[in-house]
């Protein structure tokens, strides 16, 4: 599996993505393309349109052409890789697919998107049925939308667009913001353990609905502790830290500490501090030093639902 899948899925519905238009969705709805989680399937489950599929499926074309779906990235950014998943589509998958990307600011309509200039990031490539197809992307351009084209028709269960978030932070000029938010360009660059769930979950938008939507480590059997490092949206001064253990009833850490990093310099932000299970904690910080990264240490192990670091960009 390509390592680009460790990066956030910029198109994910849970991160604000949307399938804004499609050429056809006669058999299965286009919105399924960007749903969280693995596609499901229950054999011999029929609706008015035939077998029910957890994916996007178009009619059988009887004329030349191809089908397409336009996806607005919930988090604009640099795309590092694309996954086209044809799970459960065995006799009705498209034999070929391609992906293009464009950057259109504001709130464009489908017609405006179709008229925009597009760049091919995944050339027309053969697909297999009931399989994940991973495509590396070598392009440093910031994109806001992608277009999946299937040749000529058929079904795709999921489209994943992994990359690095590149937001427009000018809207925050003069205002405070969450410097650790994935939506603002922050990223977890390293962690000690991700056995149960991905560390980037702790900086995802919204609240965690259950413990799998946070970060949780395996049980430690040594004298160490677990940790992660967050690259902030930009160099900034942090004034308020939120450490949320919601949903973690019996596996919350006992304590937490925060250390800012600015090059080789370490800045103590929050000393080792007690945490409670299933609780949002808020800590005012009194330091005066801007930092670019923050190390979050939990003692000894466990999980966090969210980490928020509010402050100002320098």
Automatic annotation (TrEMBL):
Gene3D superfamilies: Galactose-binding domain-like. It comes from the Bacteria. Transmembrane segments: none annotated. It catalyses: allantoate + H2O = (S)-ureidoglycolate + urea. Keywords: Hydrolase, Purine metabolism. SUPFAM superfamilies: Galactose-binding domain-like. Residues 16-165, 185-313 form the Allantoicase domain. Coiled coil: none annotated. The keyword Hydrolase applies. Its EC number is 3.5.3.4. GO terms for molecular function: allantoicase activity. Pathway: Nitrogen metabolism; (S)-allantoin degradation; (S)-ureidoglycolate from allantoate (aminidohydrolase route): step 1/1. One of its GO terms (biological process) is purine nucleobase metabolic process. Pfam families: Allantoicase (PF03561). Belongs to the allantoicase family. HAMAP family: Allantoicase. This is Probable allantoicase.
